[in-house]
């Protein structure tokens, strides 16, 4: 009988132990890692002592401190300070509580007053109460808005219900010291609430909101052991309260008046300060004074986790004294840390929860990770030797070779492990004797002394190869000596023997990479190596290699590269653009790549990339070469400059949060624009034509990783192109034309949008009515100008006709003068001889015949020259050049002046009018030179340049003052002919300097300025 009872007891204790173990396993599985960010005065917080936290409908966190109100968007903190203009309307410096009404306006209580913040207008207004004690400087604590929009509030020692429509205050109770807790969400009928007393709490039950039945707890002096000051209350039902107070955590059943106290954790006495329900799990978050943040499991009623300040961990909480806990709808956790400001994180953020931190190991710069067996993981460190952990790195087993920096760990099959230190020494770990031996290092004479070893690898069962600065070497361990001997039939094919990496491809094929130079392919058979050729020029270093599905993957300083094994000489495909330091494949044949900028996951099947950062729980953004290894049960360990992460690849779904970017500031012409009210709520901008430079600042509204949040913006109607930017930004649109635009912000991840409509009004001179008036006025003005122009044309034509008549008169006068002076003189002389002489004698002597022939020839010559001057036949028949040559020859025969004519650069056919005008101009110029210049030479040159013909006329005469000389027939005739053919004429002369005339005829119509 006793044995049966003993067996029953034994079974009971075994079951109890199993339950305890099960709970312990549950606790270990649920163990969380939280990475906190910190908001302090350095980031704009007005005061480090925070009393109130509230996130509004737009996602801004409002922070009430003991010295001012602040608005936080995840990046920037804006402090609201009172000014002399509306000082009475600002909240007091000491903020007690913040709530929000249906309109999105905030109701803010302080130790001085109660104010409303109008979000649309971005200003404050004080509540006015018709009560003698509530005129100024009264303590206010708003805590609830019911289904009739009545505000429940503590004011100056009393709890009231305030109805805005009739401005009536209804007194509810005086059983409170200024802190109230309501059990329901806003806009419901409030049937009871809890108020805090100097000690303990009051349960206030309401009847028609005017009668109150009050019960008190933890105040009685009859039970001193349970008198407690309560800081925070969580009420899942009217029969279950959880209280945080000076006794720790208290579970209270107010119906049965029973309670239980949880006053310690890890043998430390707790002082509770705040409490909140953990979303989605049966846990409570409990803030303490001196014990940090605790997680309490409601099922087992035990504390299962603790978060305390760690001096070496910047992501731990700032201090162990937590004042307030606030959790928003996105599971962002905000902690008010006494005298340190705000700590915040996301409860679902961390997906790499375990890492070797400085609290576990002072030297946590992990240089190499090697899985020794299923029970041991070896981690080489930068300064502290080898840290040997258990299979999941949860426990440090041993520390070997302390005070040494470890560079490499190379497994030698059954022989053990070859260890290279940062000082260039080598140790051999014997797996049988389990000891370490320092090896002597021997280099062949070809090395010319000691060499830098860049890599040592086990190529075959007993073959070690090393990449050195002098080439590839065979490595052997014999009698405590590590010897290096260069392999000549490999190195002789290398253009540069400073080798960096040996990359195996198949059993008999491998690559040799020289240092940032080139890559070569070799074939090996036993100890014979055959050179196959150069693969290509390689301007990068290789830190890891892997072969999957006939593809070679290289982790290089230029990215993750993919080569085809069967066609290794082809150009590689770049999969990840980052400085890659380590590479491994998980059991699903996907790649994990450590880089200098986070940890990357590359899905080979979907060809997609995911980047993880410290925001996901990584030890740092920098990972060291060779510091990655596969562990037991498919887990992976990856190390870097701040420890090791251990994770299950199948449980690393990226953490994402929904976010909607918000416009936080609008500037017009580079000055803050206040006419539209609060920039956050602005939906429309109506601007004048000269208000056309718009600057918009926005926030990603992400509390987790705002700097990496991708935001897309577009100004429809102006650019119409989507532009993607990262993090908070400021966009400036200068000198925008009048029109209608829509500026749109879109969160790339969640596709949430914020838009503002912008209208820039056109100036009055661009209005339709003004344009109509201007067009009509221009039309009338055009008609008037046309009429005036036609009259002017007629006037010009009359002047030209008059001038032409005058020219013709002058021509007639000149012809008459020529005929009178030359031809008339000759004929008169002939008549005189005939009348005065003896005709018979003149006839008999032949003198009459001779004189008649002479005078008649001269008269004919004068008549011919006059006719030629009037209309030269050579010009009509043979063109300008021949006519000018005839003219020059005729003048040269007179031996008065010598004309030099150059037409070598002329080959253009001119119009008849142009030829005639140029000929007449040359005649007039020659005539003037002969009559007035006393010149000996005349130089005429005619050339064509591009689209013009240029005639140059020069003489070496005495010149004249062009501006002082009387403008006679000659100059006027020259200018008239030039104007007739629309030619440019330039006359350059001076007294004693001769004459130079340039005439430029444009063959194509051009605008001349």
Layout of helices and strands:
Elements lengths: L1 H28 L7 E3 L10 E6 L5 E5 L2 E5 L4 E4 L14 E6 L5 E5 L3 E5 L4 E4 L13 E6 L5 E5 L2 E6 L4 E6 L6 E2 L10 E5 L4 E7 L3 E7 L12 E8 L2 E6 L2 E6 L4 E5 L1 E2 L2 E2 L2 E6 L5 E6 L4 E5 L4 E6 L14 E6 L4 E6 L3 E6 L7 E2 L10 E8 L2 E6 L4 E4 L6 E5 L5 E6 L4 E6 L4 E5 L4 E9 L9 E6 L5 E5 L2 E7 L3 E6 L1 H4 L7 E6 L4 E6 L3 E8 L2 E10 L4 E7 L2 E6 L2 E6 L8 E4 L3 E6 L5 E5 L2 E6 L4 E5 L10 E8 L5 E5 L2 E5 L14 E7 L2 E2 L11 E4 L6 E6 L10 E7 L6 E4 L2 E5 L5 E9 L5 E8 L7 H69 L2 H7 L1 H24 L2 H6 L1 H15 L3 E5 L9 H22 L3 E9 L2 E8 L13 H12 L2 E7 ...
Parallel strand pairs: 39-43, 61-67, 68-69
Antiparallel strand pairs: 1-30, 2-3, 3-4, 4-5, 6-7, 7-8, 8-9, 10-11, 11-12, 12-13, 14-15, 15-16, 16-17, 18-19, 19-20, 20-21, 22-23, 24-25, 25-26, 26-27, 28-29, 29-30, 31-58, 32-33, 33-34, 34-35, 36-37, 37-38, 38-39, 40-41, 41-42, 42-43, 44-45, 45-46, 46-47, 48-49, 49-50, 50-51, 52-53, 53-54, ...
Helix pairs in contact: 3-5, 7-8, 8-9
Summarize the structure.
The chain has 1009 residues and is α+β, with helices and mostly antiparallel strands.
Uncertain segments of ≥5 residues (pLDDT<50)?
6-30, 1005-1009
Distance between the termini: 130 Å
Q: Strand arrangement, largest sheet?
A: 36-37-38-39-43-42-41-40
Q: On the 0-100 scale, what is the average pLDDT?
A: 86
Q: Report the strand count.
A: 72
Discrete helix count: 9
Percentage beta strand = 35-45%
Backbone CA Rg? 52 Å
Task: Name the structural class.
Answer: alpha+beta
Binned, the helix content reads: 10-25%
Largest sheet: 8 strands, mixed
Q: What general outline do the C-alpha atoms trace? A: flat
């Amino acid at each position: 009988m006793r044995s049966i009872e003993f067996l029953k007891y034994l079974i009971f204790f075994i079951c109890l132990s199993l339950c305890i173990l099960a709970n312990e396993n549950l606790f270990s599985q649920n163990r969380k890692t939280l990475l906190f960010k910190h908001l302090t005065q350095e980031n704009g917080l007005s005061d480090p002592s925070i009393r109130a936290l509230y996130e509004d409908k737009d996602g801004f966190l409002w922070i009430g401190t003991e010295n001012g109100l602040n608005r936080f968007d995840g990046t920037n903190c804006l402090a609201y300070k009172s000014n002399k203009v509306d000082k009475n309307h600002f909240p007091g410096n000491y903020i007690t509580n913040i709530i929000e009404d249906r309109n999105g306006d905030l109701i803010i209580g302080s130790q001085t007053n109660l104010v409303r913040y109008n979000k649309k207008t971005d200003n404050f207004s004080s509540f006015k109460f018709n009560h003698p004690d509530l005129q100024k400087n009264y303590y206010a604590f708003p805590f609830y808005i019911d289904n009739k929009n009545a505000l429940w509030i503590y004011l100056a020692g009393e709890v009231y219900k305030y109805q805005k429509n009739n401005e009536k205050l209804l007194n509810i109770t005086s059983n409170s010291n200024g802190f109230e807790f309501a059990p329901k969400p806003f806009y419901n009928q409030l049937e009871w609430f809890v108020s805090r007393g100097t000690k303990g709490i009051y349960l206030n039950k309401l009847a028609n909101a005017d009668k109150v039945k009050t019960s008190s707890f933890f105040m009685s002096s009859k039970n001193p052991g349970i008198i407690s000051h309560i800081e925070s209350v969580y009420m899942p039902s009217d029969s279950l309260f959880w209280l945080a107070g000076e006794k720790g955590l208290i579970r209270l059943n107010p119906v049965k008046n029973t309670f239980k106290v949880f006053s310690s954790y890890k043998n430390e006495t707790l002082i509770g300060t705040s409490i909140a329900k953990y979303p989605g799990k049966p846990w409570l978050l409990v803030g303490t004074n001196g014990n940090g943040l605790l997680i309490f499991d409601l099922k087992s009623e035990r504390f299962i986790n603790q978060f305390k300040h760690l001096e070496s961990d910047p992501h731990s909480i700032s201090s162990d004294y937590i004042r307030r806990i606030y959790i928003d709808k996105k599971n962002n956790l905000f902690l008010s840390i006494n005298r340190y400001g705000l700590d915040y994180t996301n409860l679902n953020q961390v997906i790499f929860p375990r890492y070797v931190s400085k609290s576990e190991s002072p030297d946590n710069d992990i240089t190499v990770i090697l899985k020794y067996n299923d029970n041991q993981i070896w981690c080489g460190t930068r300064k502290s030797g080898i840290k040997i952990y258990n299979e999941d790195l949860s426990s440090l087993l041993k520390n070997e070779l302390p005070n040494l920096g470890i560079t490499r760990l190379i497994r030698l099959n059954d022989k053990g492990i070859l260890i290279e230190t940062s000082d260039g020494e080598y140790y051999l770990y014997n797996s049988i004797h389990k000891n370490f031996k320092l090896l002597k290092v021997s280099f062949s004479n070809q090395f010319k002394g000691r060499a830098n070893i860049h890599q040592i690898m086990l190529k075959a069962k007993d073959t070690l190869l090393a990449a050195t600065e002098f080439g590839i070497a065979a490595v052997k361990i014999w009698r405590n000596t590590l010897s290096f001997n260069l392999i000549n039939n490999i190195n002789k094919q290398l253009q540069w023997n400073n080798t960096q990496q040996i990359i195996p491809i198949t059993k008999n094929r491998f690559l040799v990479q020289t240092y940032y130079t080139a890559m070569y392919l070799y074939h090996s058979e036993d100890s014979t190596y055959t050179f196959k050729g150069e693969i290509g020029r390689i301007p990068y270093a290789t830190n890891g290699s892997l072969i999957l599905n006939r593809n070679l993957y290289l982790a290089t300083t230029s990215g993750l590269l993919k080569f085809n094994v069967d066609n290794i000489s082809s150009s590689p495909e770049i999969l990840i653009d980052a400085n890659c330091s380590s590479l491994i494949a998980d059991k699903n044949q996907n790649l994990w790549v450590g880089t200098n900028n986070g940890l990357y996951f590359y899905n080979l099947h979907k060809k997609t990339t995911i980047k993880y950062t410290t925001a996901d729980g990584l030890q740092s953004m920098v990972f060291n070469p060779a510091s990655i290894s596969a562990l037991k049960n498919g887990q992976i360990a990856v190390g870097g400059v701040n420890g090791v992460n251990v994770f299950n690849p199948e449980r690393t779904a990226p953490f994402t949060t929904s976010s909607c970017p918000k416009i936080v500031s609008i500037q017009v012409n580079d000055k803050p624009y206040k006419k539209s009210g609060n920039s956050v709520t602005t939906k429309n901008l109506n601007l004048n034509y000269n208000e056309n430079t718009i600057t918009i600042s926005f926030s990603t509204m992400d509390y987790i990783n705002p700097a990496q949040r991708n935001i897309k913006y577009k100004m429809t109607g102006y650019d119409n192109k989507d532009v993607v930017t990262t993090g908070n930004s400021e966009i400036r649109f200068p000198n925008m034309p009048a029109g209608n635009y829509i500026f749109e912000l879109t969160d790339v991840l969640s596709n949430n949008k914020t838009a503002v409509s912008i209208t820039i009004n056109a100036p009055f001179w661009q209005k339709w009515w003004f344009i109509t008036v201007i067009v009509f006025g221009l039309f009338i003005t055009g008609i008037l100008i046309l009429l005036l122009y036609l009259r002017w044309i007629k006037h010009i034509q009359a002047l030209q006709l008059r001038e032409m008549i005058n020219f013709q008169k002058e021509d007639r006068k000149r012809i008459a003068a020529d005929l009178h002076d030359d031809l008339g003189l000759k004929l008169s002389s002939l008549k005189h001889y005939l009348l005065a002489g003896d005709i018979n004698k003149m006839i008999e002597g032949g003198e009459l015949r001779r004189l008649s022939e002479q005078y008649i020839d001269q008269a004919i010559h004068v008549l011919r020259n006059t006719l030629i001057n009037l209309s030269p036949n050579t010009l009509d028949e043979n063109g300008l050049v021949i006519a000018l040559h005839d003219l020059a020859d005729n003048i040269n025969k007179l031996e008065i002046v010598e004309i030099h004519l150059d037409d070598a650069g002329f080959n253009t056919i001119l119009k008849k009018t142009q030829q005639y005008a140029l000929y007449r101009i040359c005649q007039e110029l020659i005539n003037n030179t002969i009559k007035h210049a006393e010149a000996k030479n005349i130089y005429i040159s005619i050339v064509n340049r591009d689209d013009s013909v240029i005639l140059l006329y020069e003489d070496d005469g005495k010149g004249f003052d062009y501006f002082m000389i009387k403008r006679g027939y000659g100059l006027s005739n020259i200018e008239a002919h030039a104007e007739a053919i629309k030619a440019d004429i330039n006359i350059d002369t001076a007294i004693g300097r001769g004459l130079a005339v340039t005439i430029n005829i444009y063959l194509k119509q051009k605008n001349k300025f």
